[in-house]
Amino acid sequence: MLVRTLAVCCLALLIPLLLGAQVHSSSVRGTVRLGGSQARSPRLRLVLREVSSGTPIATTTADSSGNFAFHGVPFGSYDLEVVEGKSVPIVARIAVSSAVPVWIELDTLRSYTAQPIAVESPPWQEPSSSRQTTTHWFFGEQDRMLLPTPMGQRTIEAVLMNTPGVVPDEDGRLHIRGESAQLHYVLDGIPITGNMTRVYSSLFNAATARSIDVLTGGIGAEYNADGIVTITTKSGLGQPLAVHGAASVGSYASREAMVEALGQLGSNVGLYLGGTAMHTDRFLDPISSGPITHDDANAQSILAKLTIVPNQRLEIAALGMVNATSYAIPNQHPTSTQDQRHQLDDDMLGLRATAQLDTAAVASVALYTRRAHAELTSSRLLTLDSTQYARAIMDNEKFFIGSRRQYRT
Q1: What are phi and psi of 291, to 5 degrees?
Q2: Which whole number is the average pLDDT over 97-111?
């Protein structure tokens, strides 16, 4: 009876968090008319740009009837550009502030050439006393490519480090508000409450993200966090089927490879599959007066996403992610031979369905499971006997720490 009561209480506490986490994106739909007539143009291309950064987050082409749709658009303000050839005949400002899809009808500039233009000054209004208590910092694909980072696998850290107010500490944690290091990640509407810094977890592969939005400031108490990182991954919708790949090499024996396949299958299915693998001899990079030894790492990440839009009122997305990181803990003495390593593994499966009930109501349901496993060993051992402990002291590593942790939601 006690277990059942605790389960009900935990569910009641989690419901506000889950509901708040799911509604961080929506869709933008509409129709483009050429010259205000009923004639349509299949050559019109539409680009959605985030206002504060000017970063294009999505591109699509209107069909033969002039209809278009953008899916998985994070909350924010956007400029919707209609591109015809080399010209941009019209730009419309839209705001995505709820899960209710935004509908807009656009005419190209030709429909306004014969219309009178009236310039009016709106009446002065008393400024509202309510003020926004949060700030957000938006990073699109182009923004992330310009960030300084030693490896692509650490791009998510570069995003956070370029957010005002975020500072690192000697343990690899990122403090977003004073002493607090609690960041709440939301991946395609699925909450991840773990500490996703390179010391405690595998880093999220930012190459799979279409946009990253960092929210700071006065955040609601139901999140139990001082910062929220909302990540919208690529879906493949509105894009031709394509395969991309990249590889890089650098100092400290660093090497990295990335491959992704994405595109639209048929008229209503989007597919994305991306993976990365990397190795480096300098991962934790601690502050040290001498040379850094025993600091290598290997990491792999795979993300798959399938998005189905059977009609204008229903969207279903299935997501799977697997990460693995193994890194060495730097030795305290250059001659030390102790091999302390940290193995981090996590995987996640998620399913989200969003249905528009009417013009002002949307129902969103998310089912997910996430497992994380961490194991800290010394020369592949979790515990030391007396002989091994004596050897550890000789190797200048008398403080042995071995542990195994598991986390599941």
Answers
A1: -65, 145
A2: 77
Summary count for the chain: helices (H), strands (E): 4, 22
Parallel, antiparallel or unpaired: strands 361-378 and 340-358: antiparallel
β-strand pairing of 45-50 with 67-74: unpaired
d(CA 322, CA 230): 19
What pLDDT does 232 receive?
Answer: 92
Work out the burial of residue 387: count CB atoms within 10 Å of its CB; fewer than 13 is exposed, 13-18 middle, 19 or more buried. Answer: exposed
Among candidate residues 271, 276, 288, the one with its CA nearest the CA of residue 324:
276
Concatenated DSSP letters of 192-225: E-S--STTTSPPP-GGGEEEEEEEEES--GGG-S
Average pLDDT for residues 101-105, to the nearest whole number? Answer: 90
Length of the chain: 409
Please indicate whether residue 78 or residue 109 has the higher confidence score (pLDDT).
Answer: 78
SS3 of residue 145 by DSSP: helix
Instruction: Collect all residues with Cβ–Cβ distance below 8 Å to 312 and sequence separation of at least 6.
Output: 29, 69, 101, 356
Q: Are 46 and 61 in contact (CB under 8 A)?
A: yes
Q: Which CB contacts under 8 angstroms, 24+ apart, belong to 87-92?
A: none
> DSSP secondary structure string, 257-275?
EEEEEEEEETTTEEEEEEE
β 167-168/134-140 pair status: unpaired
What's the chain's average pLDDT?
Answer: 80
- Tens-digit pLDDT profile for residues 359-390: 888 898 989 999 999 998 877 777 767 776 77
The single residue listed with the structure tokens 């500039």 is 109
pLDDT digits (tens, 9 = 90+) for 250-275: 988 999 999 999 999 988 999 999 99
Rg (CA), the chain: 25
Alpha helices per DSSP H over 121-261: 141-145, 155-161
d(CA 51, CA 55): 8
Domain ranges of the chain: 2-111, 136-408
- Which CATH number does the domain 2-111 belong to among 2.30.120.10, 3.20.20.140, 2.60.40.10, 3.40.50.620? 2.60.40.10
Q: Any idea which of 37-41, 86-90, 224-228 has the lowest mean pLDDT?
A: 37-41
Contacts of 258 (CB under 8 A, 6+ apart): 152, 207, 245, 246, 247, 274, 275, 276
